[in-house]
Amino acid sequence: MAMLEERPLGFGRMKRKEDARFIRGQGTFVDDLQLPGMLHGAVLRSPYAHARIVSIDTSAALQHPKVHAVLTGADLEARGLAWMPTMSHDMQAVLATDKVRFQGQEVAFVIADDRYSARDALELIDVEYEPLAVVIDAGRALAPDAELIRDDLEGQTDNHIFDWEAGDRAQTERVFARADVVVEQEMRFPRSHPAPLETCGAVAERDRVSGKLTIWCTTQAPHAHRTLYALLTGLPEHKIRVVSPDVGGGFGNKVPVYPGYVCAIVGAIVTNRPVKWVEDRSENLMSTGFARDYEMRGSIAATREGKILAVKVDAIADHGAFNATAQPSRFPAGFFHVFTGAYDIEAAHCSVRGVYTNKAPGGVAYACSFRIAEAVYLVERLVDCLAYELGSDPAELRLANLLEAEQFPYESKTGWVYDSGDYGPALRKTLELAGYDELRAEQAAKRERGELMGIGLSFFTEAVGAGPRKHMDILGLGMNDTATLRIHPTGKAQLGISVQTQGQGHETTFAQIVAHELGIPPEDVDVVHGDTDTTPYGLGTYGSRSTPVSGAATAIVARKVRDRARLVASAMLEVAPEDLAWERGRWYVTGDPEQGATIQEIAMAARGSLPLPEGVEGGLDAETVYDPPNLTFPFGAYLCVVDIDPGTAKVTVRRFVAVDDCGTRINPMIVEGQIHGGLTDGVGIALMEQIAFDEEGNCLGGSLMDYLIPTALEVPEWETGETVTPSPHHPLGAKGIGESATVGSPPAVVNAVLDALKPYGVRHMDMPCTPGAVWDAMQAGTGPR
């Protein structure tokens, strides 16, 4: 018993249960799968960004001795599989039939004995293309004479996808008209890529006897994938099994259904053998889900004293050639509603236009909860631009305008209700941890010596936990989550969840939730996920929704088990249920604590011969479907210190202080790990990451030599702090943390860079702040060199 008491129960620091197999190299990833008779697939991709397909000759490839089949768009069209629905109610070509619409688009699929032979045979396919005009610039895509990209869509006459707006335009214009100061700034959030360590891949197998189709694939949303495959193939869902084994990072990149997955499925059906497809790094960077790519023109209105009155923005969202993003369909601009930030303002309005361009499909929820990164970047850059205009200290300007704790729950000017917050203490704690006054004094002394040091701030409000089904869906499916909890007779537990881990530590965190609610040691809780045959239905992990939604479902299902256990305990102890009281791990008789039963004893009795009370059939198992009443709104205050070499314009992040409030912290160690990863991600976005294209649509970021991602050499030792403001509607008070740091860090870094360049008269520059871009800004500045 003493050993059991020493084990961690409930919330607190606990080493991740799943790490034991990973550090021993015992994880199972898609590319590890080896099935008897398995074949390998490879994708032929278009070298053009926009071109008509005149002809495809596969005869030479079919003569290759190790090739079993070559699929083209025409082959899939004959089976009704050439086009597939996306998670945003668009249609995407599986293999191009009429024309290619971005460089790297899938044109043909070769199936061979091994991967090398499949790739060799790609070179034997002869495709004749008729090049077409290329549209890369999102603004240019809206021009009347722009080449039509989606001529496959009936009635589509231009490259426009949607118009979306939030807030009150008329009221906002009235407030702007009476403002003392109006600052406008154009800014760009460049196209970036999640670049997970593991690329995308799938293995498909169809059982020759039952006809059941099994797909092992790198997905963050197994159940949503299964539904889409059922819609695409016409197979009933009980004849489809989707397994997502260990996933080597996702960050939104593994939410969409990619053509390679479908090709593997068709290949397995055509050849009657398992088919594996795994992309290489260049394919992943060129053709899988991108993020961001927003062109924004923002304005902020204020009094001369620095009271922020209103914010407005017009934006263009570049969605690439197909609208494949996995965002809630009723919000085509995602969660951009939070562009008002954490500030107490009178009015706000934004409008967003979505457009098609000749780029790979974009807009995935890349660690930013559906466009929140863009929204936070916009408002935090505007606040710094306002501080520049007024000659105000950026910290004091923010403190004077933050919402107060008594204003929560707060309805923003775009109609969203922030659940809880206490913003001032978070920012003040950041300033205190950083030694803000001392940093400003150090900066002043360095400027006297001609040294470039910058201090950047950002304050963000996140919106996570997608989502309430009355507002949000994917493929018409409500975004609620299910949890099932089985209690074995010995008191061990198996929790089935519908979210899918990609490194977040679900097997640990969710076991801790059960432990917290029932008193079962977390080591005795087996967390099952990633297999549609053995887990309950839900829409997966993205947008930092695991703890806010599935974590809530886990807490509620555990409480159902606890309530059922109370009824069984009342029969065991021969008292009325209302005469029992709970302490962690046992029910006992009120007033007589010696008379009680542990959850393990109750589990055994529930499966035994004990006469059970009415309504209890036997066992403690339970299931719940959780439909969150609202999103949760974590927040944070970040401070970044950079140094810039005046001779080379190289930016060095010297310090970074991050104070996050994610409500109740279940496992602080995992929370800190998520923050460290997100901060590193944000530094990469701010300083080095960009998927760029030339005027012919050639992708200039198709390798990790061209698309730079940060390493330990580019980041400082992170300094973190916390405040805790529980969510009032979440059963645990938890808000989610997985994406906060990625959202809040880019504006802090960019604000620090621009603060360093203040002597040059530079008010704004776009990300990434590479040495070349910083040098150009310095040379174009109006201040002294």
Provide structural commentary.
Helix 11 runs parallel beside helix 19 and helix 15 runs parallel beside helix 16. This protein has 20 helices and 32 strands. Strand 24, helix 15 and strand 25 form a beta-alpha-beta unit. The chain is an alpha+beta fold.
Helix content: 25-40%
Model regions low in confidence, pLDDT < 50 over at least 5 residues:
1-8
The rough form would be described as globular
Please state how the strands of the largest beta sheet are arranged side by side: 3-7-1-14-11-12-13
Q: What Rg, in angstroms, do the CA atoms define?
A: 28 Å
| pLDDT averaged over residues | 94
DSSP E strands, number? 32
Distance between the termini: 72 Å
Write the layout of secondary structure elements.
Blueprint: H1 2-6, H2 19-23, E1 39-45, E2 51-57, H3 59-62, E3 67-72, H4 73-78, E4 83-85, E5 91-93, E6 99-100, E7 106-112, H5 115-122, E8 126-131, H6 138-141, E9 160-167, H7 169-177, E10 181-192, E11 201-206, E12 213-217, H8 222-233, E13 240-243, H9 259-271, E14 275-278, H10 281-287, E15 291-302, E16 308-318, E17 347-355, H11 372-390, H12 394-401, E18 410-411, E19 417-418, H13 423-434, H14 436-448, E20 452-461, E21 473-474, E22 477-478, E23 481-487, E24 493-497, H15 506-518, E25 525-528, H16 546-573, E26 580-583, E27 586-589, E28 592-598, H17 599-606, E29 622-626, E30 635-644, E31 651-661, H18 668-687, E32 719-722, H19 740-756, H20 771-780
Parallel strand pairs: 1-14, 12-13, 16-17, 24-25, 31-32
Antiparallel strand pairs: 1-7, 2-6, 2-8, 3-7, 4-5, 9-17, 10-15, 11-12, 11-14, 15-16, 18-19, 20-30, 21-22, 23-24, 23-29, 26-27, 27-28, 30-31
